[in-house]
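Try this one yourself first.
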């Protein structure tokens, strides 16, 4: 983050803190409850947001070395992103061309090839089919060169890897193969993200949970601090303010900063020494479904995918500035991940589950986002615009 911008953010917070105020949106935003409960609306989201549009698939740290791969599911057709021998990231549909089995699962390291577990059809790191063990003459007349894994557009930069998953068949081949303009996708966020040197971070662990609520409710809980004093009074409320959050839009994305009470230690010190870190948690919402979170001394990557209108899968990854070489370091990072998941899974997400059940029962026609919740309104306004495009 630019130093002048960093100091300016601290100045903005102190201006709000002096009056116990929030940065306000121009107006209250009304969100239809049906956007969380309608199967028809979810189908529109799947087609417009999760098929044929660029998604944050991984961080560069997820595949640091040749042969490293990470998979992406929940966005329609399954995707695998792999680091080739030449150092480039390659993305492909993670489906064997023989019988449609998943070629690989989760994340791992391949020894120069990807092998389907069903019949051991073998693909090199570029996706070309190299072997059909035990097939004999069974596939005579079918060109092996036509049976590689289907390539997908992928772009890497600023420590991020974006992939364009396959578009629905009705969208046509052009949408499937259109290159990704990274600067266009990030809408000005690139230089700020680059300043963190994300590409030098190291993946520690990713945990996956299925939550019985609409995927947007999971994202919503990260976009305002208003609930902290109430919902989290027994956990993080003593460390965070519930007012004075800082919001800035970047196209459909945004930066939302929740401020820790330790920032008051900066009062009376020279402005040139000010910094938001480590006195804040910085959320970068990368629409439609990813959050990159700077938390004290590490990053978290949250990716949320719909499994149904009232069910979603949440991937939470932790990335450290140095590899955890010994058990002490591993234990430290595990405790960090334990702590953040304890708060979300025991306090935030149960609330989301109850909201989902009540909305499905017709308890409310709409949700009302206050002017003191600008990031929340921006997120949903951005999704509505993406659905119309």
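Now uncover the answer:
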């Amino acid at each position: 983050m630019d130093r002048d911008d960093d100091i300016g953010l601290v100045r903005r917070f102190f201006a709000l803190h002096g009056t116990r105020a929030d940065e306000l949106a121009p107006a209250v935003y009304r969100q239809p409850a049906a956007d969380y409960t309608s199967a028809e609306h979810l189908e529109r989201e799947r087609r417009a947001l999760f098929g044929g549009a660029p998604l944050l698939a991984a961080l560069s740290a997820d595949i640091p070395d040749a042969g490293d791969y990470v998979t992406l599911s929940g966005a329609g057709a399954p995707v695998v992103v792999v680091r080739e021998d030449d150092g480039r990231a390659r993305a492909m549909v993670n489906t064997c061309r023989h019988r449609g089995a998943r070629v690989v699962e989760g994340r791992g390291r391949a020894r120069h090839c990807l092998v389907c577990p069903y019949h051991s059809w073998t693909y090199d790191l570029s996706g070309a089919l190299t072997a059909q063990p035990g097939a004999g003459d069974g596939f005579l007349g079918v060109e092996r060169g036509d049976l590689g894994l289907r390539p997908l557009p992928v772009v890497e930069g600023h420590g991020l890897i974006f992939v364009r998953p396959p578009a629905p068949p009705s969208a046509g081949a052009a949408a499937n193969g259109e290159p990704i303009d990274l600067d266009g996708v990030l809408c000005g966020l690139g230089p700020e993200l680059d300043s963190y040197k994300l590409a030098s971070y190291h993946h520690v662990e990713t945990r996956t949970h299925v939550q019985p609520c609409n995927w947007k409710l999971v994202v919503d809980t990260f976009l305002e601090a208003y609930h902290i004093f109430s919902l989290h009074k027994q956990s993080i409320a003593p460390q965070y303010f519930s007012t004075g959050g800082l919001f800035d839009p970047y196209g459909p994305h945004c930066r939302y900063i929740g401020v820790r009470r330790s920032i008051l230690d900066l009062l009376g010190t020279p402005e040139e020494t000010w910094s938001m870190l480590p006195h804040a948690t910085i959320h970068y919402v990368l629409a439609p479904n990813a959050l990159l979170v700077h938390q004290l001394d590490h990053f978290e990557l949250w990716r949320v995918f719909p499994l149904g209108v009232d069910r979603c899968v949440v991937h939470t990854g932790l990335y450290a500035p140095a590899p955890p070489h010994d058990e002490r370091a591993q234990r430290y990072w595990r405790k960090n991940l334990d702590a953040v998941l304890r708060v979300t899974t025991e306090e935030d997400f149960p609330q989301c589950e109850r909201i989902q059940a009540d909305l499905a029962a017709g308890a409310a026609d709409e949700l009302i986002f206050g002017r003191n919740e600008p990031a929340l309104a921006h997120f949903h306004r951005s999704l509505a615009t993406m659905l119309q495009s």
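Discussion: The chain has a mean pLDDT of 94. The two ends are 31 Å apart (CA to CA).
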